[in-house]
Specification:
This protein is of the alpha+beta class. The chain has helices at residues 13-21, 85-95, and strands at 29-32, 47-51, 56-60.
Length: 96
């Protein structure tokens, strides 16, 4: 669901505070748990460590990312493979 236009985009105040203390050229990773924060133009060039529930995924912000949420670039689920007999047959064929 999108946020109301009259409310404006949501950016965590602590996140903006952290950005204000460093420069984009420093190449420091800004760790954050705020996955619902929207990417603003001030964030371009910074590298964020977005928490996915287990560890921090490094995300370098570019111009194309403006308007999206930080959580979109840090997947929370890891797909391994589908199991079963058919999957084993497919894998053995690929090895041959």
């Amino acid at each position: 669901m999108t946020r109301s236009v009259k409310k404006g985009p949501y950016v965590d105040p602590k996140l903006l505070e952290k950005i204000g203390k460093i420069k984009p050229e420093d190449n420091k990773v800004v760790k954050t748990w705020s996955r619902n924060s929207q990417i603003s133009p001030e964030m371009i060039g910074y590298t964020f460590g977005v928490h996915n529930g287990k560890d921090f995924v490094e995300v370098r912000i570019t111009e194309e990312m403006v308007g999206h949420r930080l959580g979109e670039f840090s997947p929370t689920r890891k797909f391994i493979r589908h199991g079963g007999k058919m999957q084993k047959e497919i894998e053995t064929k690929k090895k041959e």
